[in-house]
Amino acid sequence: MSTTTTTAPTASELIARAEKLVPLLRERASEAENLRRQLDETIEDFKSAGFFTAMVPAEHGGSALGLSEFADLVRVLSRGDASAGWIAAFLISHSTLLYRYGAEAQGEFFAEKPYGLTVAAAGPPGAATPVEGGYSLSGTWRFGSGVLHAEWAALSAMSPDGPLSVVVPVSETEIVDTWHVPGMKATGSNDIKVEGLFVPRHRTVSFPTYSSEHNEGAALTEYPLIGYPMNRTLNLIHSAVAIGTADAALELFAGGLGKRVRMQTQQKQIDEPITRQTYGKAWDLVQVAGLQLHDALAHTDRVYGRHSTGPASLADRARINLGLTGSGQKAFQAIDLVVRAAGASIFRTGDPLERIVRDTQVMRNHAAVDFETMASVAGGALLGVGIGDYAEPMF
């Protein structure tokens, strides 16, 4: 396995580098949207900034960011462009999926460098048929965000032995061009297809074990996040991107206010009390969203970290899940406020706020920010009546 003694950038250094990229990501957003993928130059910029080792264990030369630090990095990049922040977040964090495997698999994943650019797709699960030395894998997986830049694909599959996580080289898959959507176009979230692909046994693992704190890789590293349940390190991404996008909406709205005059009154909009009130409300929502996200992540560390005193209760998980989904919802509400106050001209194709409208319409339909469903389920947990038929491993 690749190891290095190079000093990794700190969280504050990574965030400062992300801040410098914000104007460039905004400048490239239109071209990336037309290409329906991130520019190669952007991926190279992420690499040069050290982002791809941000969630690599320190003993392998990584920055080993904590959850809150990772969320802050994603938020800044998403202020540049939602699709860029989304892809960065997945490519950064998905190395942790590879570090959940055992030593033999890690030796393959990290033979040349301590990170692996990885796409993850869970549904619908493929079919894994046992063969000598491993499995024959077939299936088509949807929504492969980052597949156009990835080296490895972490996929789910059903086998006679139960559900599996399997990892295959992207070069051995077919990328099916299905990502024709109104928003988040530059994520290139296409389908992934394989037919009868051999996967050696060391690149397969029981999914319930893999996704839990008992995964093989947790014993091989000092990086605490590898020992968290998988959904606790990934589900924050969607809200962090939403909050960063809301930050951008507030900036763009404020930047254009001085030019806008209401036709009926010939008064500058920035001088209208209702405009100032709208901006204040939106700013407040984004502030609360950020605080709520950080509270959820701090509670995650208390519950799942190395100093945890016991298994997470349903109430603990309810607090975390409501914090993640609720923070995303507040970010979307803030965007809605400033968009409605910004006037019709923002809907001209190419206006950055027009892109944010389309991006957030797509983002808010992701299950990870489905606050209405989560409020119902988590409310049951907090009231002590359970979570009904909601799948407990996903709660």
TrEMBL record:
Q: Does the keyword rRNA-binding apply?
A: no
**Domain Acyl-CoA dehydrogenase C-terminal: from-to ranges:** 236-370
Coiled-coil zones: 15-49
**Protein keywords:** Coiled coil, Oxidoreductase
Kindly list the residue ranges recorded as spanning the membrane.
none
Q: Where is the Acyl-CoA dehydrogenase/oxidase N-terminal domain?
A: 19-108
Q: Matching InterPro entries, A to Z? A: Acyl-CoA_dehydrogenase, Acyl-CoA_DH_C, Acyl-CoA_Oxase/DH_mid-dom_sf, AcylCo_DH-like_C, AcylCoA_DH/ox_N, AcylCoA_DH/ox_N_sf, AcylCoA_DH/oxidase_NM_dom_sf
Query: Is Transferase included in the keywords of this UniProt record?
Result: no
User: What family is this protein classified in?
Assistant: Belongs to the HpaH/HsaA monooxygenase family.
Q: What is this protein called?
A: Acyl-CoA dehydrogenase family protein
